[in-house]
Design brief:
Layout: E1 20-25, E2 30-35, E3 40-43, E4 50-53, E5 66-69, E6 81-84, E7 88-92, E8 100-105, E9 114-118, E10 125-131, E11 134-140, E12 147-152
Antiparallel strand pairs: 1-2, 2-3, 3-4, 5-6, 6-7, 7-8, 9-10, 10-11, 11-12
């Protein structure tokens, strides 16, 4: 039916958080949640509770807005976590320590609201970024960080997911 059902009681984020990166880690059955205020959490997808509060995002004060894992399919034995801020792509390695390794510049300055995901089977990365009044789908090069503009999207977005099997 498409009806949503709440899982658990929920939890509060840092009140200064205005953007969130969220993705499922396929190797440990946990959700990674990172915020633009530096929060770095692991969530239990079965009951919605915080499984662990990990080290803040570091170094510096990047404004993380998107998070995605490679090999995101059931039974995956390895994965790499990537995050975006408004102008750069990073690898979060190790994720629990919050340590960011800069991959490169996106080549754009995105607004704070965007979507970012990596195809579970293809490991191709995509993002929906708003740049000024333009909202576009971009492909993201995971080796260089470069964002390549694709089709225009009619509305500003807060999140996106790449479909299963892609």
């Amino acid at each position: 039916t498409g009806a949503a059902t709440a899982v658990g009681m929920g939890f509060a984020l840092n009140t200064s958080s205005t953007a969130i990166g969220f993705d499922f880690n396929p190797t440990v059955d946990r959700i990674r949640l990172v915020t633009n205020s530096g929060q770095n959490l692991r969530l239990n997808p079965n009951d919605g509770t915080i499984a662990a509060t990990d080290a803040n995002i570091n170094p510096g004060t990047p404004m993380i807005h998107g998070a995605a894992y490679t090999n995101n399919f059931a039974g995956a034995t390895s994965t790499v976590m990537y995050v975006t801020d408004m102008s750069k792509l990073y690898r979060q390695d190790p994720p629990n320590n919050g340590t960011l390794v800069e991959i490169g510049n996106l080549g754009i300055m995105a607004d704070s609201q965007n979507g970012f995901d990596i195809g579970g089977m293809s490991n191709m990365a995509f993002a929906l970024f708003s740049v000024g009044n333009s909202h576009r789908v971009y492909s993201i090069n995971l080796n260089s960080g470069a964002a390549t503009a694709g089709i225009e999207y009619p509305n500003k977005v807060r999140a996106m997911a790449v479909g299963l099997g892609f």
